Hints:
Elements: H1 21-27, H2 29-40, E1 44-50, E2 56-62, E3 64-66, E4 69-74, H3 79-86, E5 89-93, E6 106-115, H4 119-129, E7 136-151, E8 154-161, E9 164-171, E10 179-180
Antiparallel strand pairs: 1-2, 1-5, 3-4, 4-7, 5-6, 6-7, 7-8, 8-9, 9-10
Helix pairs in contact: 1-2
Amino acid sequence: MGNTGDAAHAPHAEDALTYTWxxxxxxxxxxxxxxxxxFGRYTxxxxxxxxxxxxxxxxxxxVNFRLDELWLAMMPNSRKAHDLLRDPRLSLLANPGGGTDMxxxxxxxxxRAVEVxxxxxxxxxxxxxxxxxxxxxxxxxxxxxxxxxxxxxxLVVRSWAPGRPVRTIRRGNDDSPPREDS
Length: 182
């Protein structure tokens, strides 16, 4: 995909409806703001990619919300960059911070990484972050965004996927089944 952020969403052969971060944020601004704020609390987060043999790889990295999109920049020829070039599926987990209180909840973004090959987009990003090339640059196309938190003794899971609004599921500390907000 040569387009790296100008459209709210762009179709892929394997998925009829694919969003960039800006498309997701336009569709679900409240959840997008919560997720972005949660990632903004810390510099380093966790990236899950798929290794050549199909097993998972977890690595640390910085997440960049710049130019209205979600970007991943990586050292040239890093293992995680090679993983994404071979298989673009990923999951990002926001740094939970210290302790066990999970202030702000647990936030995860799953999706695909699209390598930026357009020189103008690459240069704009490099200038924005003040990072001299060379590096690999990927635009994240979210396929799922999830925030899990505790509210009034209930576990609350808010999730989004392309083409549907945010779903909220609540589970109490008792034996009652989880319930979905309408």
